[in-house]
Design a protein that fits this description.
The structure is a homotrimer of 272-residue chains. Chain A is 19% helix and 31% strand. The first copy, chain A, has 272 residues and is of the alpha+beta class.
Chain lengths: 272, 272, 272
């Protein structure tokens, strides 16, 4: 047995870091299939890594080992966690990048990564991706039980990232959220998700309007093509979140908007 | 059986989009070998994707499934095509990206991608790469017949991209073409190909000169090293097209030239 | 048998070049596992490629074939070398990129790549990655003996890159080196390595100080976390070299330093 190992790091693609991790993995588990999710996380941007993990892990085969090496605390006392959730495995520093699988019914169990006999020696203080994450991931992909990695740890003892929550003004029928990511196409991803919108209205295309940076967008659509080329729209994107986009263009450029910017959704009262 | 799947997209490498497609593919066809040709196509640049496909597919194993997701029409009524050509398979929106395998004797057959039982559900309106292209590619790589994908479609009903054609002035012995791509090294790729030049002369190195942006280049060479370091040259590159290059440098930078720029090849009359 | 093939090139990721090499490899050796170490070497930067090779090859499985295509001399008379060293295989132009496995006891044997029956035909003069390196690498990964590639060549006849050596002023207890690379995080890698430092002192954290660009750094550490956030430090990094870094930041940005910049290490005399 040798399954899929996915990698999310902030290593970039110019240096040899990701390649070296793959060399170590293949030295232990020659039949592993390694998938780069991204090495383009902003340096040490834990929140961005958590969002990418949330948007990608559900689409991988059962027992995939997802390795996240965005690790500003490397060499300090921060812990490394191996966890099982939603039928898959996760290996990451205990710094909040695993938030998407915590705080819900998803997590099955979590263990500290403490069994040093699984590490590459000598263990450097600056490249645990090579010396700890890669060899442990290879063993997990080969079927090693979590209990062999280290002692069990309780979910409530793990670092969880506070995600900015939308604020709902019941009376005014307003949801106030924010932009949490901007993708390669300039689409603006918000922290307002589909269930939250669905709780307010099922008539998305007519019953609400979206405001940000002085622009007003009528209705929430399902496809870029529902407006004309170059036009701004609000849509429920493939990540089940409210996104702001431009058909055939970049909303980030159009609105000069970036992460942290506020977004408001205003719902019309149903006629009496 | 599980073959090679190649990917050409405009997704970039920062987001999780390409990784998610791989997750879906491996969930269905665990033994597939996935090759990234590029995720760096300019956003929604169909012509660029067609050129990359043309320059890459002939070098892949038989029955490779080439998936092109450069898809400005995602979510609209645009069709998706699965085609067989030159012993290989192709999966792409019907927007012109498959032009390199059309308009010639290459195409063997083409089918609409309409069998929804092959898709991932629910099918989003914004990420068909994940919900349609990836699962269908995985099935094709696993040996599913094109006829199972959807109804056959005639070649003449498929969108074909008009490629800018060089103009030949018979009397003046001049070919007027243009730059159609600029590569990572700053080499300028033109729409004048080897057969066209060969029809004019076999004495490339002496019988013609190339003009663009006020520069005059004598002769067409076969290697960068045939001129001195830093010197401009015209050559028949590895893609069998006339290219303008600088030995050890960037012609794009040297000439401040970009896509769309005109290029003229002037042939000398044979001495009478 | 079909092993691992690693790729180090200056092709970038926007064009199809690396993907085409993979297509050719998989056409010959369908079971190969291909690992991108990097395609982000600066165009024709042989020294950078040599450093990346040095930092990556030791972490790969035995008999991995490491292919380096940073090849400003493509199409000229420069030779291509296949070599065995440290239990692994190497394929590269004879231009100095293989320096890390020369000049030591590492090299086991080297052969010219001259057996044209192994090449893709016609062999272009501009893309030997596709026409020579890829097919020969595929055969080596499949177990072909070096002797089948071409005639043996002596190590002393191979091009070796002069690496800038640190200068030691015995009396003044000063090592003068330089920055040889800057990584994605802005860490500054020097040509002063761990054995050289170890020969001077074992009390790294107290017995020396590092100077560059007017900044003075006390002591050599082992982890970024040994100083406060945003603070400059000198450390022995994961590549066993003296590096200059900023905890949670970029030393390159902090010091406005780049490759070639001088670095001095000053050792204190032991009290007498």
């Amino acid at each position: 047995m040798a399954g899929v190992i996915s990698l999310i790091t902030d290593f970039g693609l110019r240096d040899e870091y990701a390649g070296v991790m793959k060399g170590v993995i293949l030295s232990i588990s020659a039949k592993s299939t390694i998938v780069d999710i991204t090495h383009g996380i902003g340096p040490q941007n834990i929140r961005e890594a958590a969002l990418v993990l949330e948007s990608s892990y559900p689409y991988f085969p059962r027992t995939t080992v997802h390795v996240v090496v965005v690790d500003p605390g490397v060499g300090s006392e921060r812990r490394i966690i191996a966890a099982a959730a939603a039928g898959q495995l996760f290996l990451a520093p205990d710094n909040g990048v695993l938030t998407p699988i915590l705080g819900s019914a998803r997590l099955e169990r979590a263990h500290l990564v403490s069994n040093r006999s699984l590490f590459r020696h000598p263990v450097s203080c600056t490249f645990h991706g090579r010396d700890i994450f890669a060899p442990v991931a290879a063993r997990l992909a080969g079927g090693l039980a979590l209990a062999e990695i280290g002692e069990a740890v309780r979910q409530e003892d793990l670092v969880q990232l506070p995600m900015p929550q939308p604020i709902e003004d019941e009376k005014e029928q307003v949801l106030s959220g924010e932009i949490i990511a901007v993708d390669h196409f300039g689409n603006l991803l918000t922290n307002i998700d589909a269930p939250l919108l669905a709780a307010k209205t099922s008539a998305w295309s007519t019953a609400c309007r979206v405001e940000l940076r002085g622009a007003t967008i009528e209705g929430v659509r399902l496809s870029y093509q529902s407006v004309g080329p170059g036009e701004l729209l609000a849509l429920l994107g493939s990540r089940n979140r409210l996104e702001i986009a431009v058909n055939g263009g970049s909303a980030a450029h159009h609105l000069q908007a970036s992460v942290g910017e506020g977004v408001r959704v205003l719902f019309r009262r149903a006629a009496g």
